[in-house]
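Bench notes, afternoon.
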Amino acid sequence: MIGVTGTDGKTTTSHLIYHILKSTGRKVALISSVSARIGDEEMETGLHRTTPDAFEMQPIIKRIADKGFEYLVLETTSHALDQNRVYGIKYEVGVSTNVTPEHLDYHKTYANLLRTKAKLLLRAKTSIVNKDDGSFSELSEYLKSKGKPFFTYSLKAQADFIFDFNKSSKKGVTSFNNYNYLAAYSVCTQLGIDKDKIVDSLKSFSLPEGRVEKVFEKGPIIYVDFAHTPNSFRNVLPELKKDLKKDGLLIHVFGSAGLRDEKKRPDMGSASGEYADIVILTEEDYRTEDPEKICREVAIGLEKHGFKKQNTSLFRNKKTYLVNIHRNEAIRIALTIAKKNDVIVCTGKSHERSLARGTKEFPWHEKTEILKALNSK
């Protein structure tokens, strides 16, 4: 059992570990927020949920074990750890990608969040921690106070695992994904996989669905990504700006989930405002909250960066934003505004297959909706 936790990067790191083990001849299964993979079988793991509950999880693990699999890579969330969804699981290796403020509506404080994620590291036979993350000092002190030894990985300092994929391959990856590659390298090295084989397998890795996924490039370049935290915005958006051509603009379409951590909303706006030129605020699973209210709270952060609200979709000025709570219309507006040198990025929905509106789930797939809008345009 290999557990991956963290605020951002869990899914990509889980898929990287899975890919390395499979490429090097190991019989491995995977359960992530995108899907579960058991041999040639792939299945959904549920709406808006990464880690299944214990009553679903244990039969899945039994099926995997009965089929003779050697490894199971399990993306493990703080909710799963706190709610005992992973009860009874004995992790061989646990890795933490990073810990930034998230889900504080549930955990209440950053300290609670950190200690909840640390449960994976405390339970694992071997624990591996990102030494370069801002959480390292507090997390390492907490682990030490519990008498838990751990390994570290780093791109900047002395650590147990040091590996820069971008220096070993012509296939460049973003700086934040370089940390995910390093985390996977660290785990698989600890599992005894030959280092040269790990590097070779990393060269053939493709990002999971909806992770910095380019869906169109014949005109404006269009991406979808699962980024839904201030930290992930600050990682993803500057990388996408590199694709801008002369006089191009970065157009960001996003929202914030309802009944979830409303304290992060202004900082989401601030993080977007640091890099985006035009922002279109829209719905993202508003549930029983008022989506207009959610957008107003996000806009507080945008306005701190000098963004001005527009009341018409016919605009192309930098540091401007528009609110349209209908996500399909927001995407169409972005396409109307965009010119060939621009980059459009739609964040937050990514691989998911539904939008939560009120108390109901409505079918939604971001890439499909973008392509539909492009065809109609």
